[in-house]
Design brief:
The structure holds two protein chains of two kinds. By secondary structure, chain A is mainly α. Chain A has helices at 8-16, 20-42, 45-61, 73-91, 100-107, 120-130, 134-144, 150-157, 161-182. Chain A folds into two domains: 1-94, Rna Polymerase Sigma Factor, Chain: A (Orthogonal Bundle); 96-183, Arc Repressor Mutant, subunit A (Orthogonal Bundle), CATH 1.10.10.10. Chain A is 70% helix and 0% strand. In chain A, helix 2 (20-42) packs across helix 4, helix 7 (134-144) crosses helix 9 (161-182) and helix 8 (150-157) packs across helix 9. The longest helix of chain A is centred in the N-terminal third of the chain and has 23 residues, at 20-42. By secondary structure, chain B is an alpha+beta fold. Chain B folds into two domains: 1-81, Orthogonal Bundle (Arc Repressor Mutant, subunit A), CATH 1.10.10; 90-242, no CATH class. Chain B contains eight helices and eight strands. Chain B has helices at 5-9, 12-16, 22-32, 36-51, 64-79, 90-103, 109-116, 122-133, and strands spanning 137-143, 151-156, 164-168, 178-185, 190-196, 203-207, 215-223, 234-242. Chain B starts with a helix and ends with a strand. Classes of the chains: A mainly alpha, B alpha+beta. At the A-B interface, helix 2, helix 3, helix 4, helix 6 and helix 7 of A face helix 2, helix 4 and helix 5 of B.
């Protein structure tokens, strides 16, 4: 079995023993979705690459924080990428859209909401998101991709904090049911 | 800030989406440490959140990024070699005192007798931790920087006992400072488990009044406040994990 076919768990063991080849294989396997996510959140390639590098280094140093019972290696790496990209975004307060119009304009740019038909899961999740009422979908997307906290969303959208929480709760519940029905 | 169970439930979607401010996030993590129902909800919400990036079309970073990542990792190896625990004479005393610490933990007499007969070298210390945990888990935290030489083992017994940390060779700290023990979640969130001040003893036991089950690492920092997120210097962090 070549390095590229090694299972994720084996690669994590490699990371734990400071094996750069294992890190390289993980990079080849997951850098594209990680970069796409960071790029979607940050909107520029250089910052997105910095985040991906930071995320891989975090995985390299903290491989023992991975828990198999919490999900896949892919999801773990994407979670690290998401958190770090959002943290970077939040430090750029001066550049964040402060009106809903600006956010909506930014969100419709480029390929960020383009087709994700490369796999069944992507297509199904996109359909599940699209099926949500606009208000619920916007709240979830603005939080996840826009890095807005619930309090910021309340201010941005001009609605009570409780409404933001309610939209998130119902939207996430519907998404969960939709995903469960796929399995 | 301490939140009620209902208040925390109101925040779990925002927590899963990384959409809480720092204060709320810390409060939720404090609650999660002791609430299995909320942890289960967070896990379920996490599955939903994990699906969201699947909606994005993958795209390739520049070709040079791969080299940058590997170079950074290579440099990290040179800068942060894997810690190797070395035998230290103080541990000979520590092992004997280990028995004392265990006695207050309600653990099995058999384990205590085992401990009393074991010599304090590195492997024996690790073997002790395994025995004491009685099928549970343990983490060894090695001191770094000015705390080099200090260390502690967080032990999470599988049954009949509260988790605790057994520290050795703690350094004195400023009068207005305290040691803070942190439990670290898989997503990188830190939850303060205990504050304490060093005694003059070679060995010191600190109880951890939280359910350790969902945490994956631990650390100790020097803090000037009893609550809040970690702000102070890192004194030690877990590197060795046993199960």
């Amino acid at each position: 079995m070549g390095d590229q076919e090694r299972p994720d768990d084996d690669l994590l063991h490699g990371l734990a023993s400071r094996d750069l080849t294992s890190l390289g294989v993980l990079y080849d396997r997951y850098s594209r979705p990680m970069f796409a996510l960071a790029y979607r959140i940050l909107g520029d390639g250089q910052s997105a690459e910095d985040v991906v590098q930071d995320a891989f280094l975090a995985a390299w140093r903290g491989v023992d924080t991975f828990r198999r019972d919490r999900g896949t290696v892919r999801n773990w790496l994407l979670s690290i990428t998401h958190h770090r990209a959002v943290d970077v975004l939040r430090r750029r307060t001066a550049f964040r859209p402060t009106t809903l119009e600006a956010v909506e304009s930014r969100a419709s740019d480029a390929d960020t909401f383009a087709e994700a038909d490369r796999n069944v899961v992507g297509k199904a999740v996109r359909q599940a998101l699209a099926a949500l009422p606009t208000a619920q979908r916007n709240t979830i997307e603005l939080a996840y991709f826009g890095g807005y906290t619930q309090s910021e969303l309340s201010e941005l959208l001009g609605i009570p904090l409780g409404t933001v929480k309610g939209r998130m709760r119902i939207g996430m519940l519907k998404l969960r049911r939709a995903l469960e029905s796929m399995r | 800030m301490k939140l009620t169970h209902d208040q925390v439930q109101d925040l779990l979607e925002g927590y899963a989406l990384w959409a809480l401010d720092g204060t709320d996030r810390s409060a939720v993590e404090d609650h999660l440490a002791g609430c299995e129902a909320c942890r289960r909800t967070v896990r379920e919400l996490g599955d939903v959140v994990a699906a969201i990036p699947e909606t994005i079309v993958e795209r390739a970073p520049s070709a040079r990024l791969r080299d940058r990542v590997l170079a950074a990792a290579r440099a990290d190896v040179a800068r942060r070699p894997r810690p190797v625990m070395s035998f230290r004479p103080a541990w000979a005393v520590s092992v004997a005192l280990f028995v004392v610490a265990l006695a207050s933990g309600g653990l099995a007499l058999r384990a205590q007798l085992d401990l009393a007969s074991v010599r304090a070298d590195r492997d024996a210390y690790l073997a002790i931790a395994q025995k004491v945990s009685e099928g549970g888990r343990w983490w060894y935290m090695a001191g770094s920087g000015s705390f080099d030489g200090s260390g502690g083992t967080l032990i999470d017994p599988k049954k009949d006992g509260q988790a605790f940390v057994l520290f050795h060779d703690l350094k004195p700290i400023a009068p207005d400072a305290r040691y803070a023990v942190w439990l670290i979640r898989a997503d990188g969130g830190w939850v303060r488990a205990a504050n304490f001040w060093p005694s003059a003893d070679a060995l010191q036991r600190v109880d951890v009044p939280l359910a350790v089950g969902d945490f994956v690492q631990c650390a100790v920092t020097i803090e000037t406040r009893d609550s809040g997120s970690p702000q102070g210097d890192l004194a030690m962090q877990s590197r060795v994990f046993g199960q």
